[in-house]
Each structure stands twice: as structure tokens, then as C-alpha cells.
């Protein structure tokens, strides 16, 4: 639910922007702030996440549900852009904290042979949240008129569901690795038994956690046994792992994903989908055409993530990056070429726009979507896992903010196609970095990887 709400934030504002712009008349810079307000909040949330995670993974998710619900209510009642920016900042705090907690929790709770499959679920829910928001925005536009407040306020429903679930220990027990790391071995055994099922032999797995000495969350708001960010920089293995994760997270954003997600309806409107859908479905409203084409372009991401969950523990993380990141770059180059060389009003321009974004989204889900966070939850030594995960996620949000904030301004100055070419080039950089530096982690326990296994 945390990941669904993270995706919902991006999808809901993308659709709402079509209506906010004529209603509140924001400048390009203000549009950038509206989009990235939650991202700036997420940066702060990821900074404080290590301290929050000292209290456990579940309390962080509980706090996140509360903040998500508060933000949705404030967005629904927002009278101005300033008020709306502040409300979205609150959602960002929840996103930053939860985006550190969720991959960590899933990784710590998963059996080794299925860790890659389960670790794909958060990205599946992010994409589902984006698609759900697009659909809700379209339904609201068609049935309740241009009500952007309702589009943003609808997030209160999944927020309250998340909050409810965090009080259900038979569904969400605390992470057994966290409990063992805090010296609460019997509670860890009980949590592990809940996860594996009554009657399961958890002794060997529990022994591996204990023997690793991974005293996660041991003080001073850092990793285990008081480990800090400076300690991580001084440790050669942890430092190299941090650099790998940070570069992948930054490349994920510089390859354009959130610029595409936030501005897909606007990009497709520029691509001329109104002409395409007027011919195919007799839809004349450009806003409705943009949202409908966005839903069409985005829907294949969901089965793509199901496929990714199946491939993650078969192909491996590194192999999937090497195979599918180039497809992302090709799709972006195709979209840039369509905008450059085909005239507005040409149905082919709109068709290529939808097809390119569809291909880009599918290949993203099979590569740069889930894998940076999965690797970040896997490859750090146990004593640096919390601080390493939070650092990695924090850099992702910083890069997200830079790209999303600058996109509308740079788009007005240089045009959409030039930015798309830059994103395509960054896909090439990501591929080369992966080939040279990224390790493979499939089939190895977290304890083995943390000792230096996994090809790093």
C-alpha cells in the first residue's frame, strides 16, 4: 500500500495538472514545484529514515499511512498553489520514509530463493498506483467534471487501508532480522514463524541471521551498533556498494522515468493523440484524449512487472539491466524523432507517441524500475543495511527532484525532443556502468552478499 500510494502521487498529479494549469494559471516554475513538492518531502523523509527505522520497520509504515491520509485531505481542500505545494510536501515525507522501509522489509522477510520475486512487488504496486490514479482521474473527468481536488483527495482511501494493516501483526509482523539484530531472538523466531507458516523449521534461517552479527538499528540513528554515514564511507566494501547503488538510482532518474510519468498526459497531448483518438474513437476533448491515451500506454507495465517478478530470480538483476535498458533508450529516441519530424495533427505522430511510451514503460519495469532498490536492499553489509538503503533512496529522490523540477522549464526553452534525446543517452551510460560495475546477487543469502559475495 505504501508503494501504491507512491505511484498514486505521481499519477494523480499528472492528470490533475491538465486541470490545475487553466484553473490556477501557475508559471512553468510553479508547475515544477507542484510536481516536485512531494519529492522534496521524500528527500527529507529519506534523510530521517535511518532514525525512524531504529524503532522498527512497521512503525515507519504506520507513520507513513497517517501522513498520506493527512496530505490527501489537505489536497482536497487546497485553495491555492502554495497550499497545494505544502500538502504534497507532507505526502513526500511519507514517501521518503516508506520507500526506505518497504524494500528493506521485503528483503529481510523474504526466503532467499524468492527474494527477487517478492522484491519486485513494491515496483509492481508503484506502477499499479500510477495506473490506478490515471484511471481515477479519467473517471472523475468524465463523471464529475474538471475536479482536480477530488483527483488528489481520492488517495485518502488507500492511506487508511495502509494504516489499518500496520496494526495487524498476523499480516505484517516486524522484520525478524531487525528483531534478531536488536537482541530479541525469541520475538524474531515468532515473526519468522508467522512469515514461513506454523510448523516450518526456521532454526537454520534464524541461526544464519544470528551468526551474521547484523545488529541492525543499534543507535545514533544509523545502521547497526551505532554505524554512521561516515563509518560507511570509511569501510571499503560498504563504500563501493554505496557508490553502485547511488549511481543506479541517479541513472534511473536521469533516464527520464519521472519526467515521463509526471508529464505523460502533456507529452501525449503535444504528440497529437487528440487527432488519433478523434479518428479512432470520436473523442474530441484533448484532456480526455490525453488521459485515455496515457492509460492505454501505461497498462502494459502491469503484466511487464509480473514478468519481471518471474525473471528476477532466473535471469538475475544484472542480466535484466543489460538486456532491457537499451530498449528504453530506443523507445525514447523513437518518441523524440516522432516529435521532431512528424507534423502535429498527423495520427502517426500520436500513434508513435503512445507506442514509444508503452515500450519505454515496459522495458523500465524489466530493468531500472525495480532493480536499483532491490540491489540496495541486498548488497550492503548487515551493519550498514539501514543507512545504506536510506542513502541510496535519498539520492534517488534528489535526482527525481532535479529532473522533475527542471523538466517544465527546460522543455519550454529547448523543446521536448531534445530532453528525450538526453534521457536516451543516459540509458547508454547506465548500460555501460552496469556492464563494468554492477554485481549479480540472485541465489545468495543477504548474509553471504554482505560478506562480499555476489560478484562485487
Report the principal-axis shape.
globular
Specify the oligomeric state: single chain
Strand content: under 5%
Question: What is the residue-averaged pLDDT?
Answer: 86
| Count of structural domains | 1
CATH top level label:
Mainly Alpha
The tally of helices reads 23
Family: Belongs to the major facilitator superfamily. Sugar transporter (TC 2.A.1.1) family.
Domain Major facilitator superfamily (MFS) profile: 1-442
InterPro entries: MFS_dom, MFS_sugar_transport-like, MFS_trans_sf, Myo-inositol_Transporter, Sugar/inositol_transpt, Sugar_transporter_CS
Protein name: Hexose transporter 1
How would you explain this protein's 3D organization?
By secondary structure, the chain is an all-alpha fold. It has a single domain (2-450), classed as MFS general substrate transporter like domains (Growth Hormone, Chain: A, Up-down Bundle), CATH 1.20.1250. 77% of the residues lie in helices and 0% in strands. It has 23 helices and no strands. The radius of gyration is 22 Å and the shape is globular.
Write a compact overview of the structure shown.
With 456 residues, the chain is mainly alpha-helical.
Could you list some keywords that capture this structure?
456 residues; mainly alpha; Growth Hormone, Chain: A; 23 helices; transmembrane helix; transport
Amino acid at each position: 500500500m505504501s508503494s501504491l500510494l507512491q505511484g498514486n502521487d505521481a499519477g494523480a498529479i499528472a492528470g490533475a495538472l491538465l486541470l490545475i494549469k487553466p484553473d490556477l494559471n501557475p508559471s512553468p516554475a510553479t508547475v515544477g514545484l507542484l510536481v516536485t513538492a512531494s519529492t522534496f518531502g521524500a528527500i527529507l523523509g529519506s534523510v530521517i529514515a535511518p532514525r525512524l527505522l531504529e524503532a522498527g520497520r512497521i512503525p515507519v509504515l504506520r507513520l507513513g499511512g497517517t501522513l498520506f491520509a493527512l496530505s490527501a485531505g489537505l489536497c482536497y481542500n487546497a485553495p491555492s498553489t502554495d497550499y497545494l505545494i505544502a500538502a504534497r510536501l507532507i505526502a513526500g515525507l511519507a514517501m521518503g520514509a516508506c520507500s526506505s522501509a518497504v524494500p528493506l522489509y521485503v528483503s529481510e522477510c523474504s526466503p532467499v530463493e524468492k527474494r527477487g520475486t517478492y522484491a519486485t512487488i513494491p515496483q509492481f504496486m508503484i506502477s499499479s498506483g500510477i495506473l490506478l490514479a490515471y484511471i481515477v482521474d479519467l473517471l472523475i473527468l468524465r463523471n464529475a467534471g474538471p475536479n482536480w481536488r477530488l483527483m488528489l483527495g481520492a488517495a485518502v482511501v488507500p492511506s487508511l487501508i495502509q494504516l489499518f494493516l500496520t496494526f495487524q501483526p498476523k499480516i505484517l509482523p516486524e522484520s525478524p532480522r531487525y528483531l534478531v539484530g536488536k537482541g530479541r531472538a525469541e520475538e524474531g523466531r515468532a515473526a519468522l514463524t508467522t512469515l514461513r507458516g506454523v510448523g516450518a523449521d526456521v532454526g537454520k534461517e534464524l541461526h544464519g541471521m544470528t551468526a551474521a552479527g547484523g545488529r541492525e538499528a543499534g543507535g545514533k540513528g544509523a545502521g547497526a551498533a551505532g554505524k554512521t554515514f561516515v563509518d560507511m564511507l570509511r569501510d571499503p566494501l560498504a563504500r563501493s556498494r554505496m557508490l553502485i547503488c547511488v549511481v543506479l538510482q541517479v541513472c534511473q532518474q536521469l533516464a527520464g522515468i519521472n519526467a515521463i510519468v509526471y508529464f505523460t498526459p502533456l507529452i501525449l497531448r503535444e504528440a497529437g493523440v487528440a487527432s488519433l483518438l478523434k479518428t479512432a474513437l470520436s473523442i474530441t476533448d484533448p484532456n480526455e484524449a490525453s488521459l485515455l491515451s496515457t492509460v492505454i500506454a501505461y497498462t502494459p507495465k502491469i503484466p511487464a512487472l509480473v514478468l519481471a517478478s518471474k525473471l528476477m530470480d532466473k535471469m538475475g538483476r544484472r542480466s535484466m539491466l543489460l538486456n532491457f535498458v537499451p530498449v528504453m533508450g530506443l523507445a525514447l529516441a523513437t518518441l523524440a524523432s516522432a516529435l521532431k519530424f512528424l507534423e502535429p495533427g498527423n495520427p502517426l505522430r500520436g500513434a508513435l507517441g503512445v507506442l514509444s511510451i508503452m515500450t519505454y514503460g515496459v522495458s523500465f519495469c524489466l530493468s531500472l524500475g525495480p532493480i536499483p532498490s532491490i540491489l540496495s536492499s541486498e548488497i550492503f553489509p548487515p551493519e550498514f543495511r539501514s543507512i545504506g538503503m536510506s542513502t541510496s533512496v535519498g539520492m534517488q529522490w534528489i535526482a527525481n527532484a532535479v529532473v522533475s523540477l527542471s523538466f517544465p522549464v527546460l522543455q519550454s526553452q529547448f523543446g521536448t525532443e531534445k530532453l528525450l534525446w538526453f534521457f536516451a543517452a543516459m540509458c547508454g551510460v547506465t548500460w555501460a556502468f552496469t556492464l563494468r560495475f554492477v554485481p549479480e546477487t540472485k541465489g545468495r543469502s543477504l548474509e553471504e552478499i554482505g560478506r562480499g559475495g555476489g560478484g562485487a
